[in-house]
Design a protein that fits this description.
The protein is mainly alpha-helical. The chain contains 10 helices and no strands. Helix 3 runs parallel beside helix 7, helix 4 packs across helix 7 and helix 5 packs antiparallel against helix 10. The longest helix has 53 residues.
């Protein structure tokens, strides 16, 4: 019961954080910029829903691991981060490369100028995924107040960066403000977790994904001329085939310590 106000505050701040850029665009931006940001931000909705569903099933096991030891909790969260990173890295890279084609295919040519905003919002999926998983560890160790402080930092930084960037850069500035605020949020929560609670081992996963990701980028870049879906399919085929060659599969464990 004592933690209820903290969780309520986290929920409220999360909701505000999602809307800060939209509100600032209404005050400092144009109608066109607001429309472009609204279209670009729709791509994040299914990502956020999938992440929320994934992290919700992690909480019971994270709590059990925290009772065992903080090292066990860190190993579990590192393992959970692996799948998210394997999927998030190509999503971000692919979105940057194909944003204009995707927006044109879905909403028409007038919205292709939202490609910059879409790329920046897609990049924010990386810190967002890290935060949502690390937050399970904070809750499991009864440090949910750090999550509250992190989300407050995100809201304040989004207000600050939005105020600085939106008047000059419109929708792209709003997306950059959201990305920077997510990075600030991640620095607060992950910084506290790795300094005081548990170790996270994600470097191995990033290293294994590096070569497949680079080759995927080359393939997608050249395949764009064949159309959106040809580029998506070829890029995904190259990326996951190379991951298979590197023997990175769902049962691979990332160990802590």
């Amino acid at each position: 019961a004592k933690a209820t106000p903290t969780f309520a505050g986290i929920t409220i701040l999360c909701s505000i954080h999602w809307q800060v850029a939209v509100l600032l665009l209404a005050w400092f931006g144009s109608e066109v910029a607001a429309a472009h940001y609204g279209v670009a931000s729709r791509f994040l909705v299914p990502v956020a829903v999938l992440l929320a569903s994934y992290t919700s099933i992690l909480q019971p096991e994270a709590t059990r691991r925290a009772i065992t030891s903080q090292a066990a909790l860190g190993a579990f969260l590192s393992h959970a981060l692996r799948l998210v990173l394997v999927l998030a890295l190509p999503f971000v890279a692919g979105t940057w490369l194909l944003a204009r084609q995707a927006l044109t295919w879905l909403f028409g040519a007038p919205y292709s100028d939202a490609a910059g905003a879409l790329g920046l919002l897609a990049a924010s999926a990386l810190p967002m995924s890290l935060v949502m998983i690390v937050a399970r560890g904070l809750v499991a160790t009864n440090h949910q107040r750090v999550d509250l402080v992190g989300n407050l930092t995100g809201v304040v930084s989004c207000l600050l960066f939005g105020w600085l960037l939106i008047p000059g850069y419109g929708a792209t500035g709003a997306a950059a403000a959201h990305l920077l605020s997510m990075i600030a949020l991640a620095l607060v929560e992950i910084g506290f977790a790795v300094r005081h609670l548990f170790r996270l081992e994600i470097g191995k996963t990033v290293a294994v994904c590096f070569v497949p990701l680079c080759l995927m980028i080359v393939v997608v870049w050249h395949a764009r001329v064949w159309g959106l879906w040809s580029a998506v399919l070829l890029g995904a085929l190259v990326y996951f085939a190379l991951l298979g060659l590197f023997q990175l599969h769902p049962k691979t464990e990332i160990r802590s310590g």
